[in-house]
Amino acid sequence: METAFTRLVGVRHPIVQTGMGWVAGPRLVSAAANAGVLGVLASATMTPDGLRTAIREVRSRTREPFGVNLRADAGDARERVRIIVEEGVRVASFALAPSRELMAELGDAGVLVVPSVGARRHAEKVAAWGADAVIVQGGEGGGHTGEVATTVLLPQVVDAVEVPVVAAGGFFDGRGLVAALAYGAAGVAMGTRFLLTSDSAVPDAVKARYLAATVRDVTVTTAVDGLPHRMLRTDLVDALEGAGRTRTLARAVRRAAGFRKLSGLTWSRMIRDGLAARHGRDLTWSQVLLAANTPMLLRAAMIEGRTDVGVMAAGQVAGVIDDLPSCEVLVERVMAQAHGTLDALSGPWGRGP
């Protein structure tokens, strides 16, 4: 299925596997790329040296194009951009709108820039700065998310920009892909659906928690880092929502200390990253620290399997997913269903009475 997005990035199918922290590592990204979609490596939870190593590992596993996701507000974003350029990565994806300077540096080096946005005005801004495409995530999406549903946000963005638009938030099958195309998108991005594959390195016990979830078990909370964050409701989420400021601050300091040791970041750097993540919101010091070390909370669940002390980012589609196919099987199934849906729409019903 050829679209403006597949032509732009050189993949066979109009699907993106999103850059999920601690989840989108070389194993998942290469499997997604080999299945014919754009796999995106999550770099925010890696050191710069770790990022270079991961890029080379992906390349050793696939000859297909892939991307790297960056945090635009990270203090070392420019260093990571340099690594992407030096290693010849095809696509740079941003969790937040990048600066015009970073976009220009990537564009001059021939790297495609595909920011993720959650509002029409953000899409207009990055398109004016030279973005090659945008991923627009509606409120159904996992992790940090907005309030506007994909079905409302997507047509706004499609009408506002002329670059290819990839729809995210609420997609998991071929019917959703066709719906996104009908809205004018050039493809879909899926996170939770790729997390729940056999190629994902997330522990089996954690995947089982996702598979057991219903749509009512997926919630949006600001208790973790002060920003709307869609995740599975767990005992930790309940504890954070019910804890007082003193207890929350103590918990945040402990988590921050662990993340600092793991990442090698200084306290001042962590505070700067936490402050940068506020996006104009008035956060407590506990929330600033939690914003800086949210990767540690994700790591506890996604790497260590400690769902009791970690957070489990999840799109609402977690409540309707019940199996763990390989990336290859998943993509084949999505595309077969998409073609079947299109055929049905072009049949007698689609032609009208």
Keywords:
353 residues, alpha/beta, TIM Barrel, 2 domains, 8-stranded parallel beta barrel, 3-stranded antiparallel sheet, 48% helix, globular
What share of the residues lie within helices?
A: 40-55%
Shape: globular
Kindly report how far apart the N and C termini lie. Answer: 28 Å
Low-confidence stretches: none
Compute the gyration radius: what is it? Answer: 19 Å
- The counted number of beta strands is 11
Assess the beta-strand content as a share of residues. 5-15%
Task: Tell me the count of domains.
Answer: 2
What average pLDDT do the residues reach? 89
Order of helices and strands: HEHEHEHEHEHEEHEHEHHEEHHHHHH
> Total helix count?
16
In the CATH scheme, the class of the largest domain would be Alpha Beta
CATH fold-level assignment of the largest domain? TIM Barrel
Helix/strand-derived category reads alpha/beta
**The CATH H-level homologous superfamily of the largest domain:** Aldolase class I
Sheet with most strands: 8 strands, parallel, barrel
**CATH architectural type of the largest domain:** Alpha-Beta Barrel
How do the strands line up in the largest sheet? 1-2-3-4-5-6-8-9
